[in-house]
């Protein structure tokens, strides 16, 4: 039997995360629809002291279960009802996502050690126009 000497290769993406990590680090949403960005503790069901988000084009904000659908930040951002800081969830739901939401979002959360841990989520928006990328809409208003 003759040896073929063919080598098999597979590329795998490796993300190194700390105590808080994005559930999905790349999210694509439809323009005008609702989308949720979420991070969670990597330590299991460990409570978070707080949760905050830094959007690419708006001021950072803290968020918890008191920020509900009926009481959103800037009439658009609220804490998803199925998430809980007590279970280690840090999440924000964006009502009627817009092209100005496109870009890198940073989620930050603190555990009982008093330190803030962060991760990043890239948000893209599809809609009437072609997919908006981070570079394609910087500074643009739609």
UniProtKB/TrEMBL annotation:
Source superkingdom: Eukaryota
SMART domains reported in the protein's UniProt record: IG
Residue ranges annotated for the Immunoglobulin domain, each copy included: 24-126
Name the UniProt record assigns to this protein: Immunoglobulin domain-containing protein
Annotated organism of origin: Parnassius mnemosyne (clouded apollo)
